[in-house]
Amino acid sequence: MFSPRGPSLPELVTQALSSVERGYDLLAPKFEHTPFRTPDAVLDATAAALRPLGPFGRGLDVCCGTGAGLRVLGPLCRERVTGVDFSGGMLARARAAHPEADWVRADVRALPAGERFTGAFDLAVSFGALGHFLPAERPALFAGVRRALRPGGLFAFPVAAPPPVGSLPYWALLGFDTAMRLRNAVWRPPFVMYYGTCPLSAVRAELGAAGFGVTVVPLAELGRREDGAARCGLVLARRP
Question: HSE of 93 in the Cβ direction (CA atoms, 13 Å)?
Fold first, then answer.
């Protein structure tokens, strides 16, 4: 599906009936050929918005997957870049594609302690990962990222504007989330992947509660909705 080099429908079904970790291990060899991989346009727009705020020292890619975030962190960071993910399969692909970076297998809800992660980074980014965390799990995620940043460090991630109510994308996302909730109600282990559980207002409040100062800048180059609002914004959460 998606492309001749992408996963087949049976492969996607097997992934969807697995845990999140096992599902991404299975998907890893073909992940780059699916729509789940963050598009280069989003990565480039993020890099352009961050460039005037840098340069940065060490960089951290939170839920790094196969390493697409290196397209942002590599040019912006003068020191070593680290990616962290809990899928060994995804990390193997990232390590093969970007041997110049460090790749760490860990649950980002409980990042390792010690000097390697505590107060070690100037810039952290994340792409397309928030839907894998239930609302009750995000405070631990944000607190962990804050601990990993040096004072003055920045956590940045793009967030798409919600589609207009009643539009085709609105019903598509609602249908997907509903299907995932039904799946998780009747099948174990759960596969957490929701698109409607992280509205910007809630994310801003949770980042603020974790001790970040938060602003949002529009990524205008990614287009605008009919009401004139940017289709995507970049959350900039800074550790004071």
Answer: 21
